[in-house]
Design goal:
single chain; 429 residues; alpha+beta; Cytochrome-c3 Hydrogenase, chain B; three-stranded antiparallel β-sheet; two-stranded antiparallel sheet; 10 helices; globular
């Protein structure tokens, strides 16, 4: 037997170690280890509850916005104001989260995943006048490939011209990601770690200038999504059709739903959202989400706990770094005792299963193009496609939200902090 260790895994935000035991080319055992102890649950104890929105964003530098909104929804619920948020506040939160997701998913495809498919060295043969490509060509001529390495090598199937174009799009995506983050800062103040989302609504007053500033950037991003991002994903899919058959995952998908379309119901599990809430498996039959079935296990984590698993409301975070048999600082969440996948594929699959017509059309058109069944969504390329279609769906929804804003009207409601309370905030990252 032999052991393969990748530590750290670099194309993620966080500190991940993968250890694999192989025999004759077959994986016999594997461990995925979160190598950083954060301890946010401990840090928050004894603090003003309103600090949570600020502190929990430090969990992640890529998806801090989702953490901020989850914490804020939790506080809205605990303070008894979840159904009292002004429409401006609800919509601005959606716009902030939408901008964050657009930036994140452009980052994921171009700057984290695309280098598995795009051979940047082909730019050495470029003879045009594009400054970005000539800059990359100069790097290559000096024997410097950063930031394009480390990478996997040996299975590049795109043509030389497509490799050159995709590298140009890699550079263009940096600009587009910046545009998306600029959108977020219009209402959020800064990125990462926005200051705009707070219990009761948002801090920013809606003005015509802010709406216009957001909209022109959004229009540029929508053009990039439609004419660059989606075609690039399709080009990769056509070159790697076998990637629709690998990476099936656990086969279970869960989504909390995203983007409140109304705020009158204090129960987040019953609100109308753009992306629907629920759970599905490979049969894509929608089942309702029961948050009471979510349990966290720490049997193999570096935490002390003798229980068989706890609901997050009863969770304990007691570090025990020398615990026998443990290999990770990550807790192991389960739904109904099973592993469930979350993320863009889960959001789109759950919404597809709900019958939402726009999402059904997007996914059915994709599957028809590749003569594939819905099972193909549970794959490497299925996830890339779901992510790209998700970004399009959200970006195309955002102009309508902007038009619903009412300049100079309230975006925040006051509240009293109770002596004792509890709440729940559910948001997909």
């Amino acid at each position: 037997m032999s052991k393969i260790v990748v530590d750290p895994v670099t194309r993620i935000e966080g500190h991940l170690k993968i250890e694999v035991i192989t025999e004759n080319g077959v994986v016999k055992d594997a461990h995925s280890s979160g190598m950083l102890f954060r301890g946010l649950e401990i840090i928050l104890q004894g603090r003003d509850p309103r600090d949570a929105q600020r502190y929990v964003q430090r969990i992640c530098g890529v998806c801090p916005t989702s953490h901020s909104i989850a914490a804020t929804l939790n506080l809205d619920s605990a303070f008894g104001i979840s159904d009292k948020i002004p429409d401006n506040g609800r919509i601005v939160r959606n716009l902030i989260l939408g901008a964050a997701h657009i930036a994140d998913h452009i980052l994921h495809f171009y700057h984290l995943a695309a280098l598995d498919y795009v051979d940047v060295t082909k730019v050495a043969g470029y003879n045009g006048n594009d400054p970005a490509l000539n800059s990359v060509k100069d790097f290559i001529s000096r024997g410097e490939l950063a930031p394009f390495v480390p990478r996997y090598e040996g299975d590049y199937r795109l043509s030389d011209q497509m490799n050159i174009e995709a590298t140009a799009h890699y550079v263009k995506a940096l600009e587009m990601r910046r545009k998306a983050q600029e959108m977020l800062t219009i209402f959020g103040g800064k990125m990462p770690h926005n200051m705009g989302v707070i219990p009761g609504g948002v801090t920013e007053t809606v003005t015509v200038d802010k709406i216009a500033s957001f909209l022109w950037r959004l229009n540029e991003l929508r053009d990039f999504i439609d004419n660059v991002y989606l075609p690039d994903v399709l080009a990769v899919a056509e070159a790697y059709p076998d990637y629709f058959e690998i990476g099936s995952g656990c086969g279970n998908l869960l989504s909390y739903g995203s983007f409140d379309l109304e705020g009158s119901n204090p129960d987040y599990t019953k609100r109308e959202r753009l992306l629907k809430q629920g759970v599905v498996s490979t049969d894509l039959k929608l089942n309702p989400l029961d948050t009471g079935r979510i349990v966290e296990y720490v049997k193999h984590s570096w935490y002390a706990d003798s229980s068989d698993g706890r609901h997050p409301t009863q969770g304990l975070t007691q570090p025990q770094p020398h615990k026998r048999g443990a290999y990770s600082w990550a807790k192991a969440p389960r739904y109904d005792g099973k592993v469930y996948e979350v993320g863009p594929l889960a959001r789109m699959a759950v919404t597809y299963a709900s019958g939402e017509p726009t999402v059904k059309n997007l996914i059915d058109s994709l599957l028809s193009r590749f003569r594939a069944s819905p099972k193909a969504l549970f794959s490497v390329l299925g996830r890339h496609a779901a992510r790209a279609l998700y970004v399009k769906y959200v970006a195309d929804s955002m102009p309508g939200w902007l038009l619903q804003l009412k300049p100079n009207e309230p975006a925040y409601t006051t509240y009293e902090i109770p002596d004792q309370s509890n709440g729940m905030g559910l948001v997909d990252a």
